Amino acid sequence: MMSSESLKQKIVAYLPGTLAIIIALWLLLPFVRIDQSDYDQSRILVYRLAFGLMILIIMLGKMGFDVFFPQGISRKVSNVKSIIFIILGILLLVFVVYIIMQAGSLFLSSYPDTQNSYQEFPF
């Protein structure tokens, strides 16, 4: 069984990364469902998106460094860490593609209807 001191050390070691991911997810939460009513908050949402993605990309890079270059030459990286790294990278990529699709659909739905603006000239 772990001693309370080693448990505290593990909690302190994982706490900053866990807090960073929780903050990033909180920053990105409004982008799960975004629509035209969010136009008035667009300036704030752009910053939230930039900071949230920046935190997630930094955490992905840190995790990649930990997986590919473990501290100590004889220490092997666990398969769980490698799988979590791959899953986190795929989820980040999927989220970025989702945001781009959301922005595109929002733009297309708010774009003025040009088909009805053409006038037919009687010739």
Total E-strand runs: 0
| Model regions low in confidence, pLDDT < 50 over at least 5 residues | none
Main beta sheet: strand number and arrangement? Answer: none
The value of Rg in angstroms is 22 Å
What count of domains describes the coordinates?
1
Structural class: mainly alpha
Question: What fraction strand?
Answer: under 5%
In which range does the helix fraction lie? Answer: 55-70%
> Number of helical runs?
3
Reading the helices and strands in chain order gives: HHH
Write the layout of secondary structure elements.
Layout: H1 4-28, H2 42-68, H3 79-110
Helix pairs in contact: 1-2, 2-3
Please describe what this structure looks like:
With 123 residues, the chain is an all-alpha fold. The chain has one domain (4-110). The protein has 3 helices and no strands. Helix 1 packs antiparallel against helix 2 (42-68) and helix 2 (42-68) runs antiparallel to helix 3. The termini are far apart. 3% of the residues are buried.
